[in-house]
């Protein structure tokens, strides 16, 4: 009356595949978020540069008045 457990190798492989899939999805989502943040950072740098140029262009005329 000894019962042996059935071979669970298939379940272990499936669990690892699911884990790998979830990890790849997570990495993909993080890559997209980082890419979007880099684009936004470039836009912010452009805005700051534009504002600095506008301020520099206005200052000499205001100083001379």
Q: What does this protein look like?
A:
It is a single chain. The chain has 65 residues and is an all-alpha fold. It has a domain at 27-57. It has one helix at 9-64. The N and C termini lie far apart (105 Å).
Key words describing this protein structure:
about 60 residues, mainly alpha, 1 helix, rod-shaped, membrane, CcmD family protein, transmembrane
N-C termini distance: 105 Å
User: So what's the overall shape?
Assistant: rod-shaped
Whole-angstrom Rg = 29 Å
Largest sheet: none
What is the strand tally? Answer: 0
Which range best describes the helical content: under 10%, 10-25%, 25-40%, 40-55%, 55-70% or over 70%? over 70%
H/E element order? H
Low-pLDDT runs of 5+ residues are none
Topology:
Layout: H1 9-64
Gist of the model:
The chain is mostly helical. It has one helix spanning about 10-65. This is CcmD family protein.
């Amino acid at each position: 009356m000894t019962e042996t457990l059935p071979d669970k190798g298939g379940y272990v492989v499936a669990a690892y595949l699911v884990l790998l899939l979830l990890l790849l999805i997570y990495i993909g989502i993080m890559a997209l978020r980082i890419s979007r943040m880099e684009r936004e950072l470039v836009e912010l740098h452009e805005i700051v540069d534009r504002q600095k140029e506008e301020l520099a262009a206005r200052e000499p005329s205001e100083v001379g008045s």
